[in-house]
Amino acid sequence: VLHDSGVFEYTWKELELWLEHLENTVEAKKEAVIQFLERVLVKLVTSPYPYTDKAADLVQEASILQVNLFKQDVDNVSIPISHIDDALDMIDVLVEGNEGLDEEIGSTLSEDMVASTFPFSAVVPCALETRNKLLLECDGSTKGGSIVDYLITVCTDLLHSQRDPLALCLMFQLYDRELQSLSSSNYPQLYQFSHYYCLWIPQQTKETLFQPLSSLSEDRFPSLDSSFSSLLKHSYEKGAACLLEEGVKEKLNEAILHLRPQKLLLASKHVLLYLKTTVENFSSFSNNSGLTFLLFFVDLLKNILLRGNDIELCSQQEKENAQTKPDLFVDMESLTAVETSNDKILDVLLPLVFKHPTLESWFLAVEQHSVPHHNLSPLTVKHLSAHLNNCILELLKVGCPMLQARNQLLVISRYFEAVTKTVLKELQYGRRGGSKTYFARSQQLEALQDLHMYMDSQQLEEVTLAMLQVPKANLATKKSETSSGKKSCLSAYGEILVQLLTESYQRGSLKEDFFFSREHIQGMGILLSTAATEELEKVFMHAIEKEPVFAQAVGVDTQIFCLNHATETSLSIAALLIQYCRTHLLQFELWCLKHGTGEYLRQNMGLFLPLINVSKPLTNECQVLSKLLPSLQVEDLTDLVEMLPVALDAVGSIEHWAAADAISRALESSEEKVYSWKKCLLAVCIKQLILIYSNSKEQETHPEMETAMLSRLEELLHSVAEVVPEDWHNFVKMGLKYHYKDQDFMKTLNAAINLLYQKEMYLSQRLVKPSILYMMITQHSLFLSTMLRSREGADTNVHTREALVDILLTLVKRCPEVCESNHFAVLLGAYGATLSVVDQKILLLLKLYEKNGLSLVNFRILLWGPAAVEHHKTCKSLGKSLWQQPSMEEILNLLDQEMVMKTILHFPQHRHLLLQEEEQILQGKGKNKVDLQDLYDPCFLLQLFSELLRPECVVGCPKFIDINALGLTIAALSSYDHNMRAAAYYVLGSFRFHLEGARFREQKQLLYLMDVVQNGIRQPNLRFTFPLTLYIARVAQHMLKPEEHMYTKLNKFLLSLQYLNLKKVPGFFQLFYSFDIEHKLERKWVLAIIGEGLRDKHCYELYDYQRIFHVILSFFHSPLCDEATQHQILEILQNAAFITKAAYELIRDHSLLTWLLFILQKRFLENKMLNYIIFLVHTLWVTNLGDKQKSLQMPCGLENQKFLPLQLVNEFLHVLLKLLKHIRANLEFAQLTQFFSLLSSILEYRAMVIEAFKEMGRFTVNEHVLSIKDIMLLLHKWSIIGKDVKLQDDLQTIAQQYQTKELLKNIKEKNKPQAPFRTSSQFVQKKNQSETDQGPASEGSTFDLEECLSPLRLVLMHWEPLFLNISTECSNEHNEYGNPGLTCKIVYLVFRWLVKSLVDRSFHKQNVLLTFKWFKSYILPNTTVVQETIMHGALKSGIFKLYRSFHDAFEGTSDLNDLSLLNYIMLRLMDSQGLMENEYLGTVKRFCISAMEENDTEKKGNVSFQQKRQMGSYAYSGLSAP
Fold first, then answer.
1. What pTM did the predictor assign?
2. Is 546 exposed, middle or buried (0-12, 13-18, 19+ CB in 10 A)?
3. CA atoms of 926 and 165, how far apart (whole Å)
4. Containing H/E element for 488?
5. Reduced to 3 states, what is the DSSP secondary structure of residue 105?
């Protein structure tokens, strides 16, 4: 009821206090107290507002009084809600409207706001008023003594629970003023209480209300529960002397041990009140007494916290004991009471203590420059703050573990913020003040050291990084020593920093990106070299591994310390420094060469092997190892040889193999020793692979390591073909068990079998027999699933099957006895009858089986693939009695008609019928490269056809023709292998025999076709040119299709012949110049024969003899030639361009390039036409060039070289420059790449030829082929393709400035509308359609410009700009391409684009080098372009990036000349900015020029090293590098 009244909305705890003391009242007095309390509460509930107003007025009066005392404005201290009754009215209205809002309203007021706004309830003024009336009514009697005792007891505890007791004390004084007429002897406790609460009333407002008594009875101490409060109160009243007595201290500590949980909160508030009062009245104490008071009260708080912790532990123990007892003996009510009262005592007590304003505001207040209000002198404030900091820190050390256990560290977050803020401020001041050593710890540093394990990781990270940036002298200092001079030791900062780093690493809070700058890593290096611990070394190694670039910021003294420290972690740090920084590599080599180091290394070589590994790639021929192990000291090398294999035995120690390679090179002078050494390595390698395979099931495998070990095994076997038989057996067994489908393992196994199982080797007799190996492989559970093909889905076992077949081939060659007839079914099931590598090897394996005495007679009617497997299953299940041979039609149905036709079009003319071992397939040249697995193998099919066409067999001739089997047989007549042609003639003879006896409608036409072909053969085994075989195959197909137009046309032509003229394309002119209605179809048919049949020079000679090229080139420009025919003609020319003789003679005799120029004169060409022309010109150039460009790069004499005529090269270049006008963004990506690559290749070859002519003394003209007009057009086209808006704007500005008409015309055509509204011509429609096609550089495309960028860079760098020396007056007359200003602008644009294209893409050293060479040759001599270059910030930044990237990619003395060139260019750029006035850089410049002129390698290396170290800082200031 009282709670719902709203009077105790924020002071509910106070009501508990009133009721608790009522419970503790003596029974004799309890009735009067109950009546009194009932009277008070009824009055308050019925009329609360006068008393709430009274309480609010006194709170306001107290706040104003405090403001006046501290001489501050009233507004600064006004309380959030000025009147309690106003707040209560607001709450009442809201509650009536919505009862659910009360919790929301309460949540808006914080605890501090409630404590300052509602320090006590309205019960206090109401009770005091009722007391006064009661006492005044008694008129001097002692009738109200029990009520006075009750009120004083409650008010005393209420006073002790106040944070700021002034308002409550003023309330007591106000109502005590009404009792002045009473005698003090009647109520002596009133005088005593008045004297006590006046301690908190300022002197200005203090009143003497009661006369002092002459004598007081002795103090009556309450029961044990309240003895602490009473003892502390009476001691405090008597003064400092009594309070600090040892007996009093002991009694208070003893009383704390007996405090009940309910009294702990009140006791802590009581002590906190005295502590606050002591701080506020500190000026009234002497120095020692005030400080002693502070320590005394803080000790009491510590003991109270410890008492609360003990109560919780006891409570938890009781609960555990209660849970272990049977349910019969468990008192659930008592258990619940224990849980609710005791378990959560610290959850309230800890925030009550540490959230107190006095503790929070005074902790490190002076250091934060935020001291609370006070009336102390500055010296006293500093003195008070220092001791308060120590006291609070001791209290925090007790409370932090308790808060951490409850996950309540947020309670003391303000303390942590104060520590972080003050430490950072101190570090900042130290950095500004320079190097200043701190040996004595400040209070904030002590707090950091004591509390850092409880602080937030983000705060610790901020402090740690700031500490790492302090000057070196603040981390490590030098102290004098008697024996060794001066020795480094850690300062206070250093010790704390080491502790922070190590503990943070142990807690795992350093796993993210922790270090951000070079100062951080340098500070870490100082700590490491001064006070190294295992954890600190791990922190440092973690930082270098995360950001390898930090290795360049670490001093060399840190590396020397790590080398001398010689622990595993420190040496790993040294290895990382050596790997990522060449300065550390140089220091390591110097350290190795130091006197006495060699002997030390030889004694501890096992530890230093990782260092040798990382230094090997950065030195030439492992210089470090050769210096450490001189060849003369054989015994030292012997020790290492004996020790290293032990280290290699561990799986994962791949880094030691680099040292093994170095030892192998060091032992090359002794064949016996190197053989023994590699034999030992071979044994270790096999054992390591066995261990990897045996552990592959239990743990995660490492494919990279396994692949490296397999590669090393194969390499060692080539040197030492001698293994331990047991190891070899285990290797084969474990590998086949776990890695049967591993392609790398199977390839290595095949190579090992080839090397180990040789007849002349005696060791092969002791190894596993080949027959057992064959059995282990073929009887493996995965053998069939790996070998056989699936009927549906993609074949995913191709590479594994190939490796498996290689092993079978090797074993069959080494041991023919392994062949068995039952293997045929599996081999035929795995065979696909194609030209794929696997099928060719399986066919060769079948040949080897037959060669070894096994016959395929039972498989005479051959099936292959899944059909062979099914047939074998049927035979085994049904038996031979029911076994029926498959018919010819069933076998031919296994062939795919389109695939057979594709085999005809791409017939392998160089394939041998009688297979040769390791024969390579020679695929004919052509526009479309087909996959070999999409072509049938004629070696297999011709033999199959010969079996199917035996005289006793039933043959379906129409099926044989329809499936294109006849066409494939005829195509074999064009083979270069006489056996292949002979087999084809035999098959054709057998087919003719069956055709004569066949009965079907087209039988006579086919017989006549074969007669015509046979009559044209004038000699045995004659080879046909391929177009003739294709013609015959096509005609044979049409004989079965009488409904088609070509059936009648071809039959009429054949009936007019007695024999086929093999020196001409049959019926070319009749079909090409046909005037039938279907003349387009006939022309298309014959042109398809011409194009598809053009395979080699014999085909070209056949066409040229018949003047076919002359006919089609002339017809191309005829109005009768439609687009489809033009495309066919271009396809014919493309196929001819692949033939060397045709490519040259078409240009020489038919002026093909001039013919192309005539096409390019058109205003617009479709994309398809452009694609054909680009491909044609590219193919012509590549075919004519051949190997001539590579031969020019060979170091042979120029007199014997063959050059393309320079005039021919210029013609190609002229065609491409004309073609450039038609280049647009929506062309296919492949054609764009071909165009730029072709242009680059022509310019490169032309430059090489001119250079060769100069060396030979020949006269050349027109060395400069690219004009500024060509370069501008090239840049314009690329800006459109690459969507480079900046480049487009710059070119448009330049074109308008210098009035370059052609470029302006191109820009206008790009920006104008697609077509005028008044035209509807076919040309405009096609142009619009072509321009709106989605191109490779359009949105949504995955067009990658990188493949075009590289050749385009080379094209631009072949431009040799000419800077004409024209005066300023005359320059205005040269408004177009002759203006020197235009040349400077374009040169600058080209160089800017080159640099940007290199910076934005992945680093390529050769491209960077060529760019800088072009810059040195054509830009560096021109001061105008150089000045414009250094004024552009982004361009300077890009130059510096490329320079640093080239330095980082430096690979030894071979690059010194290139590096020296870049150094020279950078120095010239800095000289242009006036930075060379620096004495040091001037010296470096002279040194660099001297090194280039003298070609001194050592001097170039020194210059590069010095300039790399110093260029960065100057470049940042002068070149604005990023």
1. 0.63
2. middle
3. 104
4. strand 485-490
5. helix
